[in-house]
Every structure is written in C-alpha cells, then in structure tokens.
Design brief:
With 399 residues, this protein is α+β, with helices and mostly antiparallel strands. The protein has two domains: 176 residues, Gcn5-related N-acetyltransferase (GNAT) (Aminopeptidase, 3-Layer(aba) Sandwich); 215 residues, Rossmann fold (3-Layer(aba) Sandwich), CATH 3.40.50. Helix content is 25%, strand content 32%. The protein has an eight-stranded mixed sheet with strand order 1-8-2-7-6-5-4-3. Strand 5 and strand 6 form a beta hairpin. Helix 5 packs parallel to helix 8. The longest helix has 13 residues.
C-alpha cells in the first residue's frame, strides 16, 4: 500500500490509519521519504575531490571496475553487462567512490535512479556528480527522471540539495513484517505483575482473524472472583501432590499451596513461570505441557483455562489424558475445562502483544457431545461434568 502526499505524515498517525489493512500479515512497517524530479541537464557544482567518471554508455572496459563490497558478484556482473539499466560511477584512485544506477525498470518515458556513495568519500559531492552523469546517460531514453530516498538517509538528502532537485512530494510504503516470535504471553503477565499499563493481548486464529484474549489481570484474580464452577470443584478435588499444567500466573497453584498442598506448576512460557515464582509458587517450572513431569505420582492434575484441548486434535487430547493417567496416583482426580467447539473445534492459535507473538499452537476444543468418547479408554472416568456454555468443565477420577 502506498500513499504520496505533499508533506510527510506523522508516522504514528499513518500506521494507525492503515493498521487494519496490514496487521493480520504482521507488524506494520513504514518506509519512504521525499520524491524529486529533474532534467537531464543537471549541472552540479564541481566535486571537492577529483574523480574519473565512467558510464554504461562510455568508451571504457567496465569489467575492469573493482566491485564495491556492498554488491555481490552476480549483481555486479549484471550491472556491468547492462541488465540493470544505465549507470554512472565516480572513481577515486581506481575505486568506485560513488555509483548512480537504475534500480527500477527503465520505462519509455521515465526512469528513477538510486545513488550509493562509499562512506570514505561522502560529503565531497561525488554522489551528485555521478547522478548528473547518469542523467546525461539516460536522458535521451526517458523524458522524466526521478530520485527518491529514505527519510532517514542524510547522505542521499545531501545529493538532492547539491543538485537543487525539485521535490514532488513524499512517498510512503506500508508493509507487514512477520511478527517476531517471543514469549508474548509471558511479557503480558510480567507487565501486569510489575504494575505497567497492560493492553489486552490479541488472540489470533490461524486463517481466521483476530480478537481479544483474556486480559492478564484475569489470571491474577482472588478465589472469590473465579468462575463459580472453579470455586465449587477445586475445593472438592484439592489433594497433594498436585500438578498444575498451564499454570499462567499461578492462581490455582497458590490457592492449593495456601491450603498445605505440595504443588508443581508447569507452563511453557518462561515469563509465566517467572510470575509464578515472584508470587510465591515454590515449585514452578518451564516445561512441555504435553509431556508432564513424572517425578511424582500426582493425586490432582489441573488443566484449567481451556487446557483440556491442548492435545491439538481429538486423538491428541486422548493421548494427553492417557499420559496423565500414567503419571497419576491410583486415587487421582483431574480437573479441566474447555470451550464448546462450534463449527471449528480444531484451530491454530497464537497470542500477540506489544509487537511480538507467541509461536503458533494447535488447540482442539471439545464439544459437549464428544466428552464421553474423549474420556473412554484413557484411564479416567467422568466424576462430574459441569456445563456453563460456552465453557464446560470435567472432573475426572482415575479408573
């Protein structure tokens, strides 16, 4: 998406204006700067350093030019053979000190140049000299000549000033860079813990769209503010040792720990584990939620906040229950919840927060009608099934 105007637009305002059009593809990125036009009869002031001018149209042997370090061999070869359009170079001591070339397609009526100057030879007018030579070289092939540069490039801006180019306006290119993968969810929890203003993270469905995730503050709630079924079922299930998979900010682990239980809290997010430890969880670990620790025979296993669907597929959810049964004590209970799946039970998800995103993960939400088939033969039996649509919770007993 491009926008050209007579004056630069504020970066934040411009990104905000186009964010809905690009943010699904990644982080909005703004690039661009002033655009100039000029004629082939440029007459810049002489350079402060004597230079030899060679061009793609001159009588010389271009293959003898030494390749600048910023060009690779293949690209430099295409330039010299003419595949990249007209060019002109200013040589100092047989080295290319400045180069003006045609980075975009040469059109019948128009051409745009790009200028590079070796940092050792900047501020001497060599870039402007090479540009004037390029204009003369291409002037008989195109009526309209253009030059543009990034708004942060002061060296290129000096070329325009030295040549007294006429500015047409500003050109901006807005693109979407892939979201950098980081522990975005852990960063959101840490921000809330530290009292930093915390925007609501975004929950992205692969190929589906973006909505709001739960605010991090939700995971710091006191027991009295939990969902009614959590307040009812967790006290019934409380026992030790307990395994809290996907512990988040540690709310359930802390509640159990405060009642004398030995609790191991596991989360795949290092930031979440840091939050758990900072809040007082004694045993908090970073780990794979699909590969539970086996250093205890767990008497209580928690899969709260939708984590019954972490297996990623129907069979994956069953395998997770089977692995947990293998790690459980004979009298163990498992308390977990999920969301009524609707028309798309298996989805890819990630959380986006402050310009970064978690890796994608697969979630297989469990329809109410599927609960019996899910549990059968996994080493568990259903003790309670609480339905509070769109959520529903299972209390399972080791069989």
């Amino acid at each position: 998406m491009r926008e050209v105007g007579s004056a630069p637009l504020p970066t934040d305002a411009l990104i905000s204006a186009v964010r809905p059009a690009v943010e699904d593809g990644g982080v909005p990125r703004l690039e661009g700067g002033p655009v100039y036009d000029f004629e082939a009869t440029l007459a810049p002031a002489g350079p402060a350093r004597a230079a030899t001018i060679v061009t793609s149209a001159g009588a010389h042997r271009p293959n003898e030019l030494l390749r600048p370090s910023t060009w690779d061999d293949a690209e430099w070869g295409r330039l010299l053979e003419g595949s990249l359009g007209p060019w002109a170079a200013a040589l100092v001591e047989d080295e290319v000190a400045a180069l003006c070339h045609t980075p975009k397609v040469l059109l019948p009526l128009a051409a745009e140049c790009g200028v590079w100057t070796d940092p050792r030879w900047r501020r001497l007018g060599l870039g402007a000299t090479a540009t004037a030579a390029w204009a003369r070289t291409v002037g008989d092939r195109a009526r309209h000549l253009f030059y543009s540069h990034d708004h942060r490039n002061e060296a290129s801006a000096r070329v325009a000033r030295r040549l007294s180019l006429r500015q047409l306006g500003w050109e901006w290119t807005i693109s979407a860079e892939p979201w950098p993968e980081r522990d975005a969810w852990g960063e959101a929890l840490l921000d809330h813990l530290r009292g930093r203003w915390t925007p609501v993270p975004e929950l992205e469905v692969h190929g589906g769209g973006v909505g709001e995730a739960m605010h991090p503050g939700w995971f710091f709630r006191d027991f009295d503010a939990w969902d009614w079924w959590e307040r009812e079922l967790l006290p019934l299930a409380a026992r030790s040792p307990a395994l809290d998979l996907g512990a988040g900010a540690g709310r359930a682990a802390l509640w159990l720990q405060g009642r004398g239980a030995e609790v191991t809290a596991v989360d795949s997010s290092p930031g979440a584990v840091e939050v758990c430890r900072a809040r007082g969880v004694i045993d908090a670990r970073v780990g794979d939620l699909k590969d539970p620790p086996t250093d205890q025979r767990w008497r209580l296993i928690l899969l709260l906040c939708g984590n019954l669907g972490l297996g990623g597929s129907f069979e994956g959810n069953r395998r997770l229950l089977q692995r947990l049964a293998d790690a459980a004590a004979p009298d163990a209970l498992l308390l977990g919840d999920t969301v009524e799946a609707g028309g798309q039970p298996e989805i890819g998800l990630r959380i986006r927060y402050r310009g970064s995103a978690t890796p994608w993960w697969r979630q297989r939400n469990v329809p109410v009608r599927e609960v019996d088939d899910l549990v059968e033969g996994t080493g568990w039996v259903i003790e309670r099934h609480v339905v509070d649509l769109p959520d529903h919770a299972l209390l399972l007993r080791r069989s």
